[in-house]
Amino acid sequence: MSIPSLHIIGTREMGGAERWFVRFLRAMQRAGEPVQALVRAGGDLATHHLAGIPTGGLPMRTVWDPYSRWQVSRYARASHAPVVQTYMGRATRLTHLKRGLGQVHIARLGGYYKLDPFRHAHAWIGNTRGLCDWMVKGGLPADRVFHVTNFADAATPPDPAAMDAIRRQIDARDDDWLMIHPGRFVKVKGHANLLDAFARLPAELAGRRLRLILLGDGSLRPALEAQARQLGIFERIVWAGWQQDPAQWLHVADMVVFPSRDEETLGNVILEAWAYGKPLVATAFRGAREIARPGEDAIVVPCDDPTALASGLREMIEAPALQQALAAAGARRVTEDFGEATVIGQYQALYARLAGGG
Predict the structure, then answer these.
(1) What is the pLDDT of residues 291-307, one digit of tens each?
(2) CATH level 3 topology of 5-151+339-355
(3) How many secondary structure helices (H) and strands (E) does the chain include?
């Protein structure tokens, strides 16, 4: 039996969490589940990405605004959705539903946030086991904390014309080795360490010209550009900006690098690299320690260690057989452990349990 659900997120710009939000709702629709979205008016999600999904918008001004809280909670009640799922702090703080009135409020956490703003929810989802354990240690009832991981989207088929256009845009040569890092320019993503590591590599390696593609933007961009200039690598970097659909960029790339710091909870980029069949070098942040298998499906190096990261990149570039083995193992992991049908089935079962009073 399908369980209607309302999904609320209050962020303004696109990022990994917002891309997951869209990916998840579309997967629920494919599974025949009736979903609605409530997003921040005027934000990226309100103007892009949610075509075909019933969507409302509210200002969601601040978490301290009583009127915004009243608006969001009233909207949730009026939806009559048995399940109301909120994402991150703003949406969760603004959503308050009374227990026992036919709606269950599930707060989905994708990070190690302060728990007090989430305690009023009726149940909680964490996308890693470590995060769930942390929530229970923080005082949330263990029988209402549920682990459901993320799934990886199937890779969009390559579009040769689009790929050629990208290669022309970045003036790529046939002998270029293109390493790509998708991620907003925020401290947790480890861009500063990546630039430091990249500067430790020669301009050419194994007969290939090394180039780094950064798919992202954010407040740290001026500082990162200044760092790249100081290191003498600015011209070796493609500052591609945020891409609403990075699929063809991933097809163009030869490998994916994900240098996040330890605070990174899961890291959807790992799943994307595997889905697109790309060899992956990642740091050993919390999420990678839980889902990656070093030497089997990724090269994993310590966090905040540019020297080790440079060594990992060099090892990958110089070993074609290793590239193929890691990419093949990653593709298997996506199918076996992070498939859409498996994860959506877990959500369906959880919604049925909680909406039924379980």
Answers:
(1) 999 999 999 999 999 99
(2) Rossmann fold (3.40.50)
(3) 14, 14
